[in-house]
Amino acid sequence: MKLVFAIVQDEDAHKLMDKLMKNKFGVTKLASTGGFLRAGNTTLIIGVDDVRVDEVIELIDTIAKTRTQIATTPPLTTWSQGVYMPYPVEVEVGGATIFVVDVEKFQKV
Questions:
Q1: Strands 96-102, 2-9: parallel, antiparallel or unpaired by DSSP?
Q2: What is the pTM of this model?
Q3: SS3 label, residue 41
Q4: CA distance 97 to 39
Q5: Among 47, 44, 53, 52, which Cα is nearest to 18's?
Q6: pLDDT at residue 16, as a whole number
Q7: Which of 5, 10, 45, 109 is a plausible cystine mate for 28, CB 3.0–4.6 Å?
Q8: What is the pLDDT of residue 20?
Q9: Distance of CA 25 to CAs 38, 43, 52, 59, 104, Å?
């Protein structure tokens, strides 16, 4: 058995959860934040039999697509003199970060 952690953009989370559940995968949703934009992410935890790991990854790949968006640069964390002027930059967002780990023991009580 494997445990799949998939970190996806909030925008993709609900559609991905629906798709996983329709394909008989149990999924737990955790709210998370991170990355360059400090935007909201969703971490999905999916317990799956070894033989179905590739199926889960394919489902994630069909929903969590990368796209570009315009964002302003984040403020500097160091003190500097003068005026800070944020400017728009094009960044790539979306997609998924996936971790697959072995499960030593699974027990449902």
A1: antiparallel
A2: 0.75
A3: strand
A4: 15
A5: 44
A6: 96
A7: 45
A8: 96
A9: 29, 15, 10, 11, 19
Please report how the helices 53-63 and 10-22 are oriented relative to each other, as an axis angle in degrees rounded to 10.
140
Q: What's the token pair of residue 72?
A: 């302003």
Q: Please report the pLDDT score of residue 26 as a whole number.
A: 93
Q: Which residue has the tokens 């999924």?
A: 27
Which residue has tokens 């995968």? 25
More confident call, 7 vs 78 = 7
DSSP character string of 60-107: HHHH--EEEEEEEPPPPSS--SS-----EEEEEEE-EEEEEEE-S---
Residue that has been written with the tokens 């003199």 in this structure: 81
Q: How many residues does the chain have?
A: 109
